[in-house]
Design goal:
mainly alpha; 196 residues; single chain
């Protein structure tokens, strides 16, 4: 440790002016044990010098957590095993493991897969997660397009029929129609219908 480094073990940060601690450790206390450079965690001492109470279970010297017991002895309830004979997996719902019907099923109609996230299986969860920017939206018409069958908002049937006609009659090799944005598609449609 150099004279300008933080007092705590393994910290090589520079000390603040007029202090023996760095900015990160400025509000933390040092262990009260002689020549110890650990951070105090309780009652003024680090874990090594009694800052944490030991587990009250006989013969255990691990640190206590909740209720005076360590993580090993303080488990409130043991995990149950699957109720199917010969199965040693952990039970989830209805005292059964996922393999024996204990998991939750997908919320999609007719799907028997296990639900993963948000109540749906992996396949149906992906279908529901399509970003809204990629979904087709109805288009508002301008004065030049008021002769369309929808006369206000294009119908899906009109859009699909026009798109098919565009695919058959237009060759835009520089950019596939699939990757065009709404404005580019409208311009292409106006171009194609102006020639008819």
């Amino acid at each position: 440790m150099t004279s300008n480094e933080c007092i705590f073990n393994s910290c090589h940060n520079e000390c603040e002016a007029g202090s023996w601690k760095c900015i990160f450790h400025r509000s933390r206390d040092k262990c009260n044990a002689e020549n110890c450079r650990n951070q105090a965690c309780g009652r003024g001492f680090c874990v090594s010098h009694g800052g944490k109470r030991p587990c009250v279970a006989p013969g255990c010297d691990a640190n206590a957590r909740i209720g005076g017991l360590c993580a090993r002895h303080g488990q409130s309830k043991k995990k149950r095993s699957c109720e199917v004979d010969g199965c040693s997996k952990f039970a989830h719902a209805r005292q059964r493991c996922v393999a024996h019907g204990g998991g939750r099923r997908c919320d999609a109609d007719g799907c028997k897969s296990q639900s993963r996230n948000g109540g749906f299986c992996q396949r149906h969860g992906k279908q529901r997660a399509i970003p809204s920017s990629r979904q087709r939206k109805p288009y508002m018409t301008t004065d030049a397009m008021d002769t369309s069958p929808a006369a206000g908002i294009w119908s899906e049937e009109f859009f699909n029929a026009t798109s098919i006609a565009l695919l058959e009659n237009c060759s835009h090799d520089d950019q596939p129609l699939l990757y065009m944005d709404e404005v580019q598609l409208l311009e292409l449609l106006l171009e194609a219908t102006a020639g008819n």
